[in-house]
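QA checklist item 7 of 12: single-chain prediction sanity check.
[x] sequence parsed
[x] length recorded as 162
[x] structure emitted
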Amino acid sequence: MAKELPIEIFMPPNMLKAKVGGTTKGLDPLLIRKAETAMEELKAEFTDWIASDVANLVEARDRFAALRDDDSRGALFRASHDLKGGAQTYEFPLIARIAASLCKLIDSIAAADDIPLPLVDGHVDGIRALHRDAVRDAQNRVALTLAEELEARTVEALERAR
């Protein structure tokens, strides 16, 4: 039988840990409190920011309805994409979900004229209602039903467009 060699385990150095520090004990608790306070102060501005994003979406929808061209389609996509990304941060998770469905609808249909405007309106009106009523609860049954219905109609529209 062959002679077995001893197993040698090599642990590479953790360069990130060496650069940043091994534990959090180097963090200044005062700085952490300042950062938390700054975030709380920013939350007061979230209301203005999401209101601006919703207004941009409504404006982009109106322009898209009037023109139905690639530029207005792009503006509508960007406005919905901004809400998709920002609404979660602004503590409106269902607005983010509906905006994601709208992005999918806009992005997945080749021609701007083929995007069903009533479905776009449903998404935009749903987002406006959730914002108006300040629905922040991701488990709100009415809002969940709305989001699920819009997602289902989007899937149907995409299947018809294929």
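[x] summary fact logged: The domain at 46-161 is CATH 1.20.120 (Four Helix Bundle (Hemerythrin (Met), subunit A)).
[ ] second reviewer sign-off
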